[in-house]
Amino acid sequence: MEKMICHFWWGSSTDSRKVHWIKWQKICKPKRNGGMGFRELRAFNEALLEIQGWRIINHPSSLVAQVLKAKYFPKEQFLQAKPKQQMSYTWRSILKASWIIKKGCYWTIGSGEDVDIWQDNWIHQKGYQAIINWEESTVTTATSSSAMPTNIWQMLWKLNVPPKHSHFIWRLLNEAILVKGNLFKKGIRCDPLCPRCYNQMETSHHVFLDCVWAKQVWFASPLTINLNECQFANLNDWVLHMFNQIDHASKELIAATPYGIWYAMNLLVFQEKNLPPNDVSHIAFAQLQEFQRHNVKTQNIVKRNLSTGSSSNNTCWSPPPRGILKINVGAHLSSDGHWFSGLVLRRWDGSAIAAATRLRTGSEAIVQGEAYGINDALDLVEKLGISKVIIESDSQIVVNSVKEKRSIRRSWGKIIQRWIVFLRNNPHSSISWVKWVGNQAAHVLAKWAENEPNKDWMHTVPLFGRENHSSTSATVIGRELKPLDDRTD
Ligand SMILES: [Zn+2]
């Protein structure tokens, strides 16, 4: 079973076997000690068996304890019981795990504490961990990360970042990234040079800190880190140094960047796509922002709405004037690089006329994703033959580009142009910027689009599933959309 978990974790399948970079024992260490906190099943099983032994000692009058005692240790105590020729499988297993109680007993007396541990349920809570710790103290595992102080792990797991970012940092600090330098060390024949600069060996230090391209990414990040002045020859030392120097929010930015660098490196190697350093930095930042917005803000907003018992529309979303419709647009970037749009078209009284989700592939830049959203909105507006509409987006760049009639020499420039023309031909229509909180319904829908892409809801409110986060989505949508009727404006 552990083997299966291990294969799954490292991404192996029946067709391909991936390198398992880190020992299973190490992965099973608690997260705060540098592991991933996986259960070592053998130890877990032993801990469960040992609880049975503990119960026999503690509840000698129970039927099980009496039967076992009569059969296997009539004259001794449980801890003195010896294996016998014909034992049941259950008893053999319980007896086998009794070493833990003996050790625990010795350990507690040895530390000078009260022998009254039998009154204590330390075994229930700590048996498993104790086994892992004892085994660890007998086996010395010299890995590079064992030198890392434990506070780095505590800092890492406390960050409010997408799990893929923190897991990536964990792998990086454990030298479990498939850089060619590591493969070379494992004796696998390959060209070990960096595929970007062909100047140096592709080590994790080079890829993430030392390569000119990586330095540009860090410099383009919101922290504007200049690695030309970096004194560290080792990636782990640098991360440790940074984590100890900077505030919480900056640590989150630092944690986002290596994932972006690695993602871009894979695009280069496997798809020959060369992302500009600026874009990599933007994507990493956008992913972080999106994660934080959805994980903190949505929860807070829903909580706030529930606690105040507000039954009115979201106070931040403002309805359009009578006779004019409003379409809100939200964009969402999925973890596998797809853009989703959520569109909600409403009347002056807040009731919804239509809602839709759309899926786009092939773009990474955040502005492009937001622009796709307003393009989808225009498609919907034209399809429904609407001429008086306010389009609302929370992307300032996109909104201002339309408002100021900028000519953008990027692929999304065409979308801006399309809106400029529409607004020119429809003088009762306009575009406006709204804060993210005022655009929740569209955002929730954009996220929901991962489940139901390219779907239209006409004269009906989207009904979402019963999962955890989607039920909060339903709450938000439900509060913003009033029931529909057949009126038309
Ligand atoms: Zn390089």
TrEMBL record:
Annotated Reverse transcriptase zinc-binding domain residues: 148-218
Instruction: Name the CDD domains for this protein.
Output: RNase_H_like (cd06222)
Using the record, list the residue span of the signal peptide; answer none if the entry has no such feature: none
InterPro entries, alphabetized? RNase_H-like_dom_plant (IPR044730), RNase_H-like_EbsB-rel (IPR052929), RNaseH-like_sf (IPR012337), RNaseH_domain (IPR002156), RNaseH_sf (IPR036397), RVT-Znf (IPR026960)
Q: Which Pfam families match?
A: RVT_3 (PF13456), zf-RVT (PF13966)
Superkingdom as given in the UniProt entry: Eukaryota
User: Which GO terms label this protein's molecular function in UniProt?
Assistant: nucleic acid binding; RNA-DNA hybrid ribonuclease activity
Q: Enumerate the spans annotated as RNase H type-1 domain.
A: 341-449
What is the name listed in the Swiss-Prot or TrEMBL entry for this protein? Uncharacterized protein
